[in-house]
Amino acid sequence: MNTYLKDKVRWVNNKVISGEQLFFFAFTISLIASFVVNTTFMIYLRINQVNWFNYFALFLLVIKIYIFDSFNWKEYIAITITLALAFFSWKNTQINTVMIMFGFILGAKNINFNKIVRHYFNVNFVLLLLIILYSLLGIIRNLAFFRGDVFRYSLGIDYSTDLSAYVFYLCLAYCYLNYRSLNWKKFIGILIIDTIMYLITNTRVDTFLILLIVPVIVLATSSVKTKMKKFIVSSFWYLNIILPYTFVLLTYYFTFGNPIMVKLNRILSGRLTYGEEGFEKYGVTLFGQKIAEHGWGGAKGLTMMKNNPFGYFYIDSSFIRLLIINGTLLGVITLFIIAFISIRETIHHDYLLPSILFLVVLSSMIDQHLLEITYDPFLLSFLSIVPFNLNGGSQNDKIK
């Protein structure tokens, strides 16, 4: 019977569908469903209905992991425990994004990472253009938020900072795929996009991070490296560990009695305050917990901003959310994945991915998108096949 099942799986793999095709089918479904959840289309849709598409995608990934992929028994145990932790986190928090992301991280084994990023870029680029068009045509709402007397438009996305985050991650994906041809013309193009996004969304963090993308990637991929350049690019791997830890400490020990912390909190739009409040009110759990958050996103959030602005409470930082909402165990696993990818690539003197993750970590200290598949495809490099971007090798050619 065991031999028969193996032969059957082999026949399915060779004749009907491959593990790669199954992965990209699931990836497409989840990218579309997760994107729609973050738009004003949700005024007309029920979240549970859309989430069923994500659950179906996760089901396909489980099939790929346990039938199409090949792991040893220790790896299968580790995978099963991780998926179980993600499942319990979903049940405890009623937030499915982390569970979906871990499904894709573990399901990306033997998939070329360049193909993953290219697929992510193509799908999300089209979706973003369509949603902006729909909002400008009045098919869906273009929510207008405000900071002081400055209006911040979201162009069909739930919130203006989410729109700028989509642009940030798309710019990251574009530069990752085209790092060899980055030049001053493309830098000016990205600068123009960045300026337009700032005028529309008035988002400071993503505006600054988009400006950093080209110089950081050019520095990381330059063939000519001085001692200073080598020191900087070799520092990305441990900065990707130290920065989240430092931000957690700053948040946990935040006090209005420290003028430096107060100024930093003001720069970060009060994120240290809300994070510290989260630690104080809810504490840290192993498996996650459901907490009451009231953010500005969506039509309901806009109504609250206008009528009850003091009711706002939302934990933005991905790393603080992991500890307070999703659970410490998943937080440790996430940090391990980031560290593993960064160290693995640095050992091979390939600094492209560590530099990308450095920018992702900077963003994730402020925003909540680290473990959302609709934004961040870069953690999928954990088990996928990462081409030798800087040091040659048979996989160095651009994926067609």
Automatic annotation (TrEMBL):
**Which keywords does the record carry?**
Membrane, Transmembrane, Transmembrane helix
Q: Does the keyword Membrane apply?
A: yes
**Which residue spans traverse the membrane?**
22-45, 52-71, 77-108, 120-139, 159-177, 184-201, 207-224, 236-255, 319-339
The entry's protein name is Polymerase
Q: Which organism is it from?
A: Limosilactobacillus reuteri TD1
